[in-house]
């Protein structure tokens, strides 16, 4: 029986400690993985989106440079100076985008985009040469078959790459959400299992120990009644053995002191067990905070997705306005040619030229307003990008906070292990005290034997006392063994 109760106690502590430690390790490991995935998503999506957006912005400036070059002759030098700078910026954006982690589909799309862009910029210098030479009609025809379709192809491939980047980001976000849900279910089921096991062990051990104590108390009560009857019958003999009785009394008092010490140690063990339970509850709360931190990280990543969607809409508006500017530039070219023809035909009476010139000014005004509208949209795009950077930075902080909470969970479980170790040490001290009690009981038996040898006239009564004492010793040994395993 002693080995069974001891084994149950050690098995209970080992099971609960192993289960709690396992929950802590799994929670920490999964939280770390979630934080790493979120950080990778933040880097790839943010850097990729910003690079593609900047590429789109500078590509628009390149395409808008043609109509500006026609209607603003005074700014032609600035436009030609800005041209290589825009090439350099776009090459830097492409290099940055190429260095992030790309899927095979993204790499294939990037190759197509670079090919179309190189073909577009390779065709631009000849158009400038034709315009500078005054060959406007040839420049318009050259642009219609080269730069315009090449630029449109580049824009189409760029939009496809942006949509692909958004799609991949959404898929990775769904993977993070799925991992988070699995972690939540695992922690909930494991903690519930720990509570059920703790309840079952408490009921089984409490019932076992209570039955042993109850039986021992009954035996002691029965035996004590027999001893009282026998002592009353042999009162005269016991008086003759006063010295032996005094020695026995002293020994029993020492036994009482040792019993009190055992009780104190048992209370200390109970206090340490209560502390272990409190620390385990603290570990559960810390895991809850970790789950909340990851939930906040989910909201931040969702905000990133919303900002990117808004950025896509504004980019589409930029493309529409850019097309309008291109159409106005074409009309301006046609009217300019007509004005030249009318001026040559009318000579001094160039009324037709005046009408054409007036139309050219109107179209120029429309082009200017469209350019202003585009600049406003570009500014809004930059604001959206800045907001995205701030939101994603906050998401990274939340992920770091989740890792710190997981580390705190590990510290709590270390404290639990220390508390359980203290319980084990107290149980060792209780066992040593029980051994001292056994020695004291042996001394009491020796004193009673001396009484038996001196009480020949009460042989029958002493035999009854001996039998009753043996029963009492057996019951006392059961109680001592029970204290040793508690």
UniProtKB/TrEMBL annotation:
One GO biological-process annotation of the entry reads: signal transduction
Sequence ranges assigned to domain Methyl-accepting transducer in this UniProt record: 216-452
Transmembrane stretches, start-end? 183-205
Q: Mind listing the UniProt keywords for this protein, alphabetically?
A: Membrane, Transducer, Transmembrane, Transmembrane helix
**Out of the domains of life, which is the source?**
Bacteria
**Alphabetical list of InterPro entries matching this protein:** HlyB_4HB_MCP (IPR024478), MCPsignal_dom (IPR004089)
Pfam families (UniProt xref): 4HB_MCP_1 (PF12729), MCPsignal (PF00015)
Can you list the GO cellular component terms from the UniProt entry? membrane
Q: Which PANTHER family match?
A: LYSOZYME-LIKE PROTEIN-RELATED, METHYL-ACCEPTING CHEMOTAXIS PROTEIN MCPB
Instruction: Kindly provide the name given to this protein in its UniProt entry.
Output: Chemotaxis protein
From which source organism is this entry? Fischerella thermalis CCMEE 5268
């Amino acid at each position: 029986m002693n080995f069974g109760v001891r084994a149950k106690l050690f098995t209970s502590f080992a099971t609960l400690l192993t289960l709690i430690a396992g929950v802590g390790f799994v929670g920490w490991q999964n939280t770390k993985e979630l934080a790493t995935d979120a950080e990778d998503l933040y880097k790839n999506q943010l850097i990729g989106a910003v690079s593609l957006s900047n590429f789109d912005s500078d590509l628009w400036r390149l395409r808008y440079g043609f109509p500006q070059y026609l209607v603003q002759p005074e700014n032609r030098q600035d436009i030609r100076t800005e041209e290589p700078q825009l090439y350099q910026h776009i090459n830097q954006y492409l290099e940055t985008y190429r260095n992030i982690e790309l899927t095979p589909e993204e790499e294939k799309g990037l190759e197509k985009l670079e090919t179309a862009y190189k073909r577009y910029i390779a065709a631009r210098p000849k158009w400038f040469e034709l315009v500078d030479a005054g060959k406007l009609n040839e420049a318009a025809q050259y642009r219609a078959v080269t730069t315009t379709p090449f630029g449109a192809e580049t824009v189409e491939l760029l939009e496809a790459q942006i949509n692909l980047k958004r799609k991949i980001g959404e898929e990775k976000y769904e993977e993070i959400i799925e991992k988070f849900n699995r972690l939540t279910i695992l922690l909930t089921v494991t903690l519930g299992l720990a509570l059920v096991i703790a309840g079952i062990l408490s009921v089984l051990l409490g019932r076992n120990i209570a039955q042993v104590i109850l039986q021992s108390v009954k035996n002691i009560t029965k035996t004590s009644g027999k001893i009282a009857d026998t002592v009353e019958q042999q009162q005269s003999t016991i008086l003759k053995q006063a010295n032996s009785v005094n020695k026995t009394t002293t020994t029993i008092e020492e036994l009482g002191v040792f019993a009190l010490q055992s009780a104190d140690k048992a209370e200390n063990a109970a206090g340490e067990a209560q502390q272990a339970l409190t620390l385990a509850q603290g570990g559960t709360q810390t895991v809850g905070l970790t789950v909340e931190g990851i939930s906040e990280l989910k909201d931040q990543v969702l905000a990133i997705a919303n900002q990117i969607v808004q950025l896509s809409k504004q980019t589409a508006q930029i493309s529409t306005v850019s097309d309008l500017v291109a159409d106005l530039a074409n009309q301006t070219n046609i009217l300019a040619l007509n004005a030249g023809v009318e001026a040559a035909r009318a000579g001094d009476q160039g009324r037709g030229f005046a009408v054409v010139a007036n139309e050219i000014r109107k179209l120029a005004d429309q082009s200017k307003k469209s350019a202003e509208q585009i600049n406003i949209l570009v500014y809004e795009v930059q604001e959206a990008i800045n907001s995205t950077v701030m939101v994603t930075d906050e998401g990274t902080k939340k992920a770091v906070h989740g890792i710190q909470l997981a580390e705190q969970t590990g510290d709590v479980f270390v404290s639990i292990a220390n508390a359980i170790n203290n319980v084990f040490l107290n149980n060792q001290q209780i066992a040593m005290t029980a051994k001292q009690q056994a020695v004291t009981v042996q001394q009491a038996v020796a004193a009673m034997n001396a009484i038996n040898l001196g009480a020949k006239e009460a042989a029958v009564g002493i035999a009854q006392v001996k039998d009753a004492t043996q029963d009492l010793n057996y019951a006392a040994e059961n109680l001592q063994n029970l204290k040793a395993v508690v």
